[in-house]
Amino acid sequence: MQGVAFARSSEGQLVARGTAERLDYRREGGRLEASRGSAIIHPTPGTSLATYGTIRVLAQQAEGEVPNARGTARGGVRLDTARGDSALTDRVALENNVLKGNDPVAASGPGYRVNGNGFSVRTDGTQIRVGNGVRGQLKPMEPAR
Amino acid sequence: MTAAMLLVAAAALPAGPLDFKARDMRIEPHERRVVLEGDVQLVRGDLDVKGRHAVAEYAKEQRPAAQKRRGRNQPPQADSSFGGQSVERFTVTGDVKVRRGGRTADGEQGVMDVPAQTLVLTGTPDTPPVVRDGSETLSGDRILLRLDSDDVDVVRPKVVLRRSLQQEGSAPAVPVKVEAAHLVLLQARRLAQFTDDVVVRQGDMVARSPKMEARYDGDGQLTKLEMRGGVDVRQGDRRATGETADYDARARTLILQGDPKLYDKGDVLTGDRIDLALDSKEVRVERARGRLRPEIHKGERGEP
To answer: pTM for this one?
Structure first.
C-alpha cells in the first residue's frame, strides 16, 4: 500500500495512529515493512509511559513482526514526546519490550541533554539507559535567595 | 589550613547547566532521578566533582489543577507533575574528589543541595572527609562547602595550623593542632570560628575553651587566636585559667584575662593579666598577688 494512514484504538480510546509512504503487510506471520513512516502513540493514563505524554516516532525504514512485537527501525530514527524529550539515532531494535541501539544517540528533554553510544529503553517507560560513554548537561534548580 | 582557605577567593557558581560525563546514564522518570555510573564527573563553573556513581534528583513540580479534569476521549498529555525539569540535589558516592579553585576535597560521599548552594562531604570513621589547600589539610566528621561563597562549615574538625604559625629562621615550626565540635570558616571576614569543646595543642601546651576565633591578616597568616568563655591552659606542671585568652601568633604569647590564675606546682598567682611566653615558658603577671612556695622549685634549672 502507498500513502497509508492507520489508527488503533483500545477500549474506546485512541492509542496510536500513524502514516507511511509505503507499507507492506503480510498477514501470514504478521510481517510488516514500512518506509518513511511515523507513528503517534497515546500512552494509557496512569502508566509510566504516560509520564512522557503523546509520543511521536519517525523512521526512514521499519520492519517487524507484529504478533511477536519485534522489529527494527533504521535510516535515522527520531522520537519526540509531549513532555519535551527528543532522541535521534540511526537504528533501533525492539525485542522483549525493550528498545535498543548501539549507534551514537543524542537525546534531550526536561532538564537534561545527553550524547551516548548506545541505549536501551523499556517500552513501559520505566527506564531509559544511555551508555558506552555519555556526556551532557543537567539543569540545576535556581538557588534559593 | 584555615588561613589558606580564607585566602581563596571564589565567586558564587555561575547559573546555567551542569556538565557531566560518565560511562552510563539511566533516566528513571518514575523515581524522578537520573543515575550516572562509572567515572562520573560533574562540572559547573570552577567546581569539579568526581566519583564512581551519582544520582541527580529532580525537584517536584506542581501539577496545574486544570490538567486533572480531562475528557475521557482526549489523548493524554504529558503529566507535568512528573519528571521535573531541574535538579535539586546531586549525590555523588565512591572516592569523591572535589576541586574548586586552588582547593580540593575528598570524601566517600558528597551531597550537593542546589537551592541551599552547599556541598556536604562525609567519609567513614577510618577515612574522614578532607579539605586540602596546598600542603594544608583540614579534616572532620562532616565538611560543608558553601558554593555561593568560599565559607566552610566543619563538624568535629581536626585542624593543623602548620602554615600559619611557621616560624622565621631555621627553627622548625611547631604545629598548632586544633580540635572542636564545630568550625565555620568565614572567607569574607578572614575568620575561623571554633565552637564547643575547643582544644588547642602546641608542643606540650594544651588549651581548652568553649569557643575560639582565629584571625588572619591579608596574606592569610594567622595573627591571633581568641579563646572565650573560660580558658584552661596546661603546659607541663603549669596550669593557667582565665575568662579569656588571646594568643599572639607572632609574639607566641598567650595573654589570660578575666580573673586569671596561674598554678605552678605549689604556687598560686592571680592578677589583672597573665602573659605566658610559650617558647621561653616565662610568665609575667600584672598586679600579681598570691602564694609562692619557693622550696618546691629548688633544684629546678636556674634555682639555687
So the answer is: 0.77
